[in-house]
Design brief:
Blueprint lengths: L1 E6 L8 H11 L6 E6 L2 E4 L3 H6 L7 E7 L3 H15 L1
Antiparallel strand pairs: 1-4, 2-3, 2-4
Helix pairs in contact: 1-3
């Protein structure tokens, strides 16, 4: 398992538009299970409504975990998405 932590910098947090883009980007990595966690809550990153229910705001720290497939490359691609969009 490969994971990284990221602090949300977007002023409105992880709202509908970037959450939808995140789900779309993650669908490209079908061989991997990607989990998004904030505090005690975690959700499969393919579940748009689950991401929205987490209420991730600017300044919140999230942990992204990748299992299966090419974990190193997938984690790097997802981390790049976070840096460019959130």
């Amino acid at each position: 398992m490969k994971s990284f932590t990221y602090t949300i910098t977007d002023p409105v947090g992880l709202h509908a538009r970037p959450a939808g883009l995140l789900v779309k980007a993650i669908k490209e990595f079908a061989g991997s299970t990607i989990t998004l966690a904030k505090g005690e809550k975690s959700v499969n990153a393919l579940k748009l409504m689950g991401i929205m229910q987490m209420g991730i705001k600017q300044g919140d720290e999230v942990t992204v975990s990748v299992e299966g497939g090419d974990e190193e490359a997938v984690a790097a691609a997802v981390e790049k998405f976070f840096k460019e969009n959130l």
